[in-house]
């Protein structure tokens, strides 16, 4: 048996000839940096980096190469994995019928781990060739005060970065807010045009949020800087969509079986979507030529995705986990879950959406059900259950509030919240422990610990749920579902809910 090749530039041609995997059609030596990206994980590499690679394969955008940048200790693993293979990696997309498409992506050309040399990281960001700084740092990375939902100026790392910038010191910066702002200061002082800050996080109004928080930080450094950033830096909104599970050792083994070693491949579904507001300070790649929807207003598409796809993920994951499922496609193999999600999307989510000319919402909803059931992707239920305290308030509770205000039904939305409350108790219906992965894990578990003595215990946390505990139509539906989950379990509760909404 032949020894597998190491993925790197030198071995690309041999890898292509022996494995059949598509390799970059461009000479990577010709690629110059144009983007610095924070948060180089699976999603970025399956999505934004993929789109850019497609452009480069057409001989375009070769001056828009990506430099990855990390600030967290965990980012060292990605830095080392990519550096070991010349920043190349394999993207495998899996269709519902099991068809695979495999290609090696070459649009990332370097990676800087900022804590090793913050001043060098700032210099990288400040160089004139960098015209976009993009972000996939998750909602938890934006330094949001959970009580006020404003920028947390008291975070010790933020305080230290603010004081360092006020002293003109870039050598100790710790956060991407500090690093990016330091580079903007450099651009301001040199009279250069600032780069665009492009959030690609799964947050409604991600560009607006990034603008608000960067302005808050910049103003805290100096009012003059804050005004300059407000007047000169663009923060486009975007909507991003591609189901991308975490990479497993099995994914690495699959690559090894076709003849080469990839330290960190990426696997995703075959569906992808990116809707991007056309608002940039120094131009952008011609994304629209490779399928990106470049528009003047992203919000209607954001609402469609967040309230149909993302909220439905929460609708399946807690019920599914309680019933003992680990894989998303196993949940979706049960038609009652399909019917429940379709009912939620049609009855409660869709009425809250804005007009979407040319979009067939019925086809989109049914496409989501097919995507969730894609067994080839091997997406896990625990992945969807993680970080619920960030997800539910942004994706599902706006649906609840808009429907309550309009006098519409909230039965199924309330049921999803109740399923989270039951899940947060920390054991499934078989008595197995549930590991709660959430930045507020202790808080939500404490809230859930009172569920059986005070049925509203979980939703009394106004920092998460606001005044929903005072809304009788919501609390009634919520209480009925949580009691049913305790007494009858997830599957029987789903059956009862479907009977209730179809009568």
Automatic annotation (TrEMBL):
Tell me any Pfam family this protein matches. Mannitol_dh_C
Record key words, sorted: NAD, Oxidoreductase
Provide the Mannitol dehydrogenase C-terminal domain boundaries.
Answer: 297-484
Which EC class is the enzyme in? oxidoreductase
Statement: the UniProt record of this protein carries the keyword Nucleotide-binding: no
Mannitol dehydrogenase N-terminal domain boundaries? 34-288
Query: Which InterPro entries does the UniProt entry name for this protein?
Result: 6-PGluconate_DH-like_C_sf, 6PGD_dom2, Mannitol_DH, Mannitol_DH/Oxidoreductase, Mannitol_DH_C, Mannitol_DH_CS, Mannitol_DH_N, NAD(P)-bd_dom_sf
Query: Which reaction is this enzyme known to catalyze?
Result: D-mannitol 1-phosphate + NAD(+) = beta-D-fructose 6-phosphate + NADH + H(+)
* Keyword NAD in annotation: yes
Q: List the GO biological process terms.
A: mannitol metabolic process
Q: Which GO terms describe its molecular function?
A: mannitol-1-phosphate 5-dehydrogenase activity
Q: What is its EC number?
A: 1.1.1.17
Specify the domain of life of the species encoding this protein: Bacteria
Question: Family per UniProt?
Answer: Belongs to the mannitol dehydrogenase family.
Q: What is this protein called?
A: Mannitol-1-phosphate 5-dehydrogenase
